[in-house]
Amino acid sequence: MSGLRVAPVWRRRLALAGAIAALVVLPLIPGALATGSVVDLIRIPVESIVVLLVLTLIPWRMLRLAVATAFAVFVAVAVLLASIDRGYEAALGIHFVPLDWLQLGDAYGVVASAIGPGPASAVFTAAVAVIVAVGIAAGWGALRVDAALRRRGDRGRSALATVTVAWIVMAAVAPPLRIQDPVAAAASATSVGSAVSRTVSALETRARVARDVAEDPFATLPAADLLTSLQGKDVLFVFVESYGRVALEGDRISEGVNDVLRRGDETLGAHGYATRSAWLTSPTYGGVSWLAHSTLQTGVWVDSQAVYDLVVRTDRLTLSAAFGRAGWRTVSDVPSNRHPWDVGTSFYHYDTLLDATNVDYRGPSFGYARVPDQYTLEHFADRVLAASDRPVMAELDLVSSHTPWAPLPELVPWGEVGDGSIYDDQPARSQQASEVWKDPRTVQRYYGRSVEYTLGSMLSFLENVDDPNLVVVMLGDHQPAAIVSGDGATRDVPISVIAKDPAVLDAITDWNWTPGLRPSDASPVWRMDAFRDRFFAAYGSAG
After folding, report:
1. Most CB atoms closer than 10 Å: which of 122, 335, 428, 534?
2. What DSSP character marks residue 386?
3. Could you tell me the keywords of this UniProt record (predicted)?
């Protein structure tokens, strides 16, 4: 009979030990995620102390259940926020702002491109399950430990009081003793509090940006005074995805990219082009390219989704709108997009929107890049530039250098691009993303090769388009993620102005940019939001 009584005791003790472990460890997970150290799981969490103190004061069972549920939700939300923030820091070099939650859908799309929709769904489902399990375990742990404390009466209350006093003492002595990682922790509270603080700061930033948007000296300029020095020119703003400073300076990357740029200088010179280059500091890093696009177009520092959402609902004068007002046909060519893009017409005021659905591409996908860059440029040259009855201004987003950088397309003879079916067997000849991403060095190598391909596509375009009035502004949108750029990398990206007409480059002589496609260490570094106003000043009659 005694054996039958012992088993339930051990089960209760084991359950209590598990409940205590849950209360100690789970609220500390946000801190461990923030630092990347499991040592941060060896602390005393204030959140668990507080919930137990509250529970001991409540005589009603249903109210205790409600408090435990609230605690469970709080811990789960804290872990969720900390997990997302960790991902943002690793991929984008920034902290997550809850106002930017819509970006999570784009993040999922990138993951799906890298590892496939099935595995991406599995990862997402597993992550949701873990967060839910954390919340359930935290709430269960609080109720279980509270019940144990109640059964022990005064001894239970004394134990809780001792832990509470110990936490207060350790928290109090940490600052004067300069203890960086005190045993007294508030990791979950810090995670939620930081997210709230960043949200408040983002709202304040939005108010400041609203004032900046309203202060635009070019907004009321007559169309006749806009961009007069470029009249009759086809002007292309070409964003090269993830084309950052590391592509020109990074180990295992820069040699191949710089070779392409050197050969490009020779080729462009032979075809009558001249080039000037410098650096721009991007508002984003590792992704969220539309922040860079909108910053260049508006002259406003758009460094978050919240700011972007605000700016695109205003009437701020964009480069594309200015060209449209001055008589150009304006075109957006975004080969990665497959969905309606209302902002393209409502804010940027493009006449024509090209994307993956309307460029007649019949070839294979290359990871994130639905359409390889050489096809994008060849189609644009034949169907837009050659067919337009007036000068064209366009923004083209070249995405073959978008993460995950595999599989990679290969350059083909310009005249054989056709409908893209020539690329059919190329994906199988390249390593797939799931293989590439097993080794950071392989990721870096494939990143470099992707930039080489995109730059090669651009040079192929310039060689084959016989347009003496062509002006190209080619730039990167942001640095690649830390797995390529490294920790603490700058946000600098190259920018080049390419033209045959000497007057185009003469107009920017006082910019002091470096001749050639590769900016030097001595080349100017501007914030990306400075470009629009300087461009207007250089090429407009009122400048």
Report:
1. 335
2. T
3. Membrane, Transmembrane, Transmembrane helix
d(CA 202, CA 306): 7
CB contact at 8 A, 420 and 363: yes
**Spatial distance between the Cα atoms of 456 and 264, rounded to a whole number of angstroms:** 8
pTM for this prediction: 0.78
Which residues does 67 contact at the CB level (< 8 Å), separation at least 6?
Answer: 51, 54, 55, 58, 142
CA distances (Å), 248 to each of 12, 202, 518, 520, in order?
63, 33, 8, 10
Rounded distance between C-alpha atoms, residue 543 and residue 538, angstroms:
6
- β-strand 274-281 against 525-527: which pairing, if any? parallel
- Are 467 and 252 in contact by the 8 Å Cβ rule? The answer is no
Query: For the residues of 263-307, what is the DSSP string, one character each?
Result: HHHHHHHHTT-EEEEEEEE-S-SSS-HHHHHHHHHHSS---SHHH
pLDDT of residue 2: 47
Rounded Cα distance between 537 and 230, Å, is 12
C-alpha to C-alpha distance for 445 and 246, rounded to whole angstroms? 12
Q: How far is CA 536 from the centre of its chain?
A: 28
- What pLDDT does 516 receive? 97
Cα distance between residue 459 and residue 384, in whole Å: 18
Structure-block tokens of residue 277: 């280059």
Euclidean distance between the first and the last CA atom of the chain, given in angstroms as a whole number:
98
The confidence score (pLDDT) of residue 106 equals: 67
Hey, what are 90's tokens? 């690793």
**Residue holding tokens 């659905």?**
357
Assigned token pair, 130 = 């873990």
Tokens of 294: 């909108």
The angle subtended at Cα 143 by Cα 138 and Cα 144, nearest 5°, is 95
List domains and CATH numbers for the chain.
2-200 (no CATH), 220-539 (3.40.720.10)
Structure tokens at 225: 């005074």
Phi, psi at 453, each rounded to 5°: -65, -45
Low-confidence residues of the chain: pLDDT under 70: 1-7, 10, 91-93, 102-103, 106-116, 177, 180-181, 542-543
Residues 84 and 103: their CA atoms lie apart, in Å, by 11
Beta carbons within 8 Å of 306's beta carbon, 6+ residues apart:
97, 99, 100, 202, 203, 205, 206
- C-alpha 381/C-alpha 374 separation (Å) is 11
Instruction: Specify whether the CB–CB gap between 462 and 260 falls below 8 A.
Output: no
Cα separation, 281 vs 296, in Å, equals 11
Helix, strand, coil tally for the chain in percent (to 5): 55, 10, 30
Query: How do beta strands 492-499 and 470-476 pair?
Result: antiparallel
Q: What residues have CB less than 8 Å from 349, skipping those under 6 apart?
A: 318, 320, 321, 324, 330
Q: What six digits make up the tokens of 33?
A: 């995620």
